[in-house]
Amino acid sequence: MEQSINEIIPGLGLQNIIEILLAFFLTSIRLSAFIIASPFFSARFIMLRVRIIIAFVISIVVFSIHPLDLDTQVLTSAYGIAVIFKEIAIGVTAGLILSIMFSAASLAGEKIATSAGLSYAAQVDPVSGVQTPVVSQILYLFLIMIFLTVNGHLVALRIIIESYNFIPIGTLPAPTALIDGGMAASGSMFLNASIIMMPVVLVVLLINVAIGIITRSAPQLNLFSFGFPITMLGTFIVLYFSISNLGFAFSDLIDSSLDHLMTTLESLKDG
Predict the structure, then answer these.
(1) Domain ranges of the chain
(2) Residue 163 near residue 90 (C-beta atoms within 8 A)
(3) What is the rounded CA–CA span in Å between residue 51 and residue 129?
(4) Using CA of residue 165, residue 40, residue 101, residue 243, what is the dihedral sign?
(5) Dist. CA 125–CA 133, nearest whole Å
(6) Is 163:178 a contact under the CB 8 Å cutoff?
(7) Mapping DSSP to helix (H, G, I), strand (E, B) and coil, where does residue 225 land?
């Protein structure tokens, strides 16, 4: 004989189950959007089912810590749709802020490869799935390795979880704060990329000037026979001796990225 839900789970009716599922859905939107847009979590080598499991497990923790103080009936109204899009916007913006600032390593690698004549040495990036220079991939993977080593991914997740305290579900902050945060992240990306690539680019420039003087003094020398090998060798030597400095630069980049993420989310509280 079939039993009703109330008999199987006393005190929990179908309406209660639907409300709990809707509340869990609202709670998981921001976190899921962040995982989709953030660096490392959004890498192509991480399977979609793994991202879903990560978002689901963390959403359970968030749902137990921050119970939803919002009538789930509003989901069928225009206000509910606005809340859903707001949660998506917050999560995607938070992830894109980290992705944009982390792109400083890729941008620096591309400029180094271009100046050293290594732009032709390109392959498909396992993170983004597009073809990029090898130097750019090495620098970006180095940055991701440091990011995981210093538990930056855990700090980023903690910031998103803490955002539920000062940006409760149901509040509608001004979209200008999200735009300002993205614009500031873009400016910081170009600044950090310039700082990372400048030593190598300057050395390559000096090498090219020296090669130009030599070929000017001895026109019979073939520039392609010794110019490019010397330039590439000088680039590799500078990169080798700059590993420790690059590590410190990437560590500072990670700290500034997480600080900027926290500042942007806190600015939404006043919006």
Answers:
(1) 14-270
(2) yes
(3) 17
(4) positive
(5) 9
(6) no
(7) helix
Residue 248 has, within 13 A of its CA and on its CB side, a CA count of 4
Phi and psi at residue 132, in whole multiples of 5°?
-135, 160
Looking up tokens 């206000």 gives 79
Q: Do 134 and 123 meet the contact criterion of CB atoms below 8 Å apart?
A: yes
Written as six digits, the tokens of 16 are 């209660």
Which residue type occupies 193?
Answer: A
- C-alpha Rg value of the chain to the nearest Å: 25
Q: Which residues contact 89 (CB under 8 A, 6 or more apart)?
A: 175, 178
Give the pair of three-digit tokens for residue 98: 């980290």
Query: What would the pLDDT profile of 138-171 be if each residue is shown by its tens digit?
Result: 888 899 999 989 998 899 989 998 888 888 887 7
pLDDT tens digits for 213-268? 877 776 776 666 677 788 888 888 888 888 888 889 999 999 999 999 998 888 87
Element (H, E) at 269: helix 243-270
Distance CA 140, CA 263 (A): 24
Q: Exposure of 132 by Cβ count < 10 A (0-12 exposed, 13-18 middle, 19+ buried)? A: buried
pTM exceeds 0.85 for this model: no
